[in-house]
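thoughts on both lines:
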Amino acid sequence: MERTIEKTADGSATLYVPELEEHYHSIKGAWTESQHVFVDKGLKASGAKRPSILEVGFGTGLNAWLTLLEAEQSGRAVHYTTLELYPLELSLIQGMGYTSDERFTQLHEAPWEQEVTITPHFTLLKHQADANAFVRSHLLRPQAGFDVVYFDAFAPEKQPELWSQELFNNLSCLLKSGGILTTYCAKGVVRRMLQAAGLTTERLPGPPGGKREILRARKLLEVNNDRNLIRTEE
């Protein structure tokens, strides 16, 4: 599919896909949106000492880059798993002008299906895979689990197969106790699917100058006083 580079309101770039009539990021501010929705309301809201993140939609790598910067600043070691069925060409990414930092290039040049340490605080694992297929296969791994899910697929009307009850049910199973799923989409139908998947949801203010609201879901702990056990909601 054809993709063209466009500037957004905060000066950072996004990609536009004419065939889908869809942008990769908010035209109100690509950098601002990614920082607010995923890093500030996702990663920073997690109490995990060594956060394990799953991203649905690697795209331009902007979410991964901002997460790397936060990991370096906070000193928390992040393991970052990301899914992308249609990787972008590096030349197109470089034309967006996000940064000249070589670590950003390393994010894109890192081989697929192979764990790569980009910095002492950021380990990357990229899968060129369909999100539904990946999540179903990951459920078979008894030790699998994520502290944070960045849900950054194209809008529901553009990629309906990624906004399904089945996928949210499976993602809920993959979330660790206290885990967080965050997304830019605050539509009622999405909120209800997350709730049906056993997660508690909250609408939060959107990024400055951008969407009015975003959505965050959590897998809460449940305390069983009779047995003095802690278990996750199903």
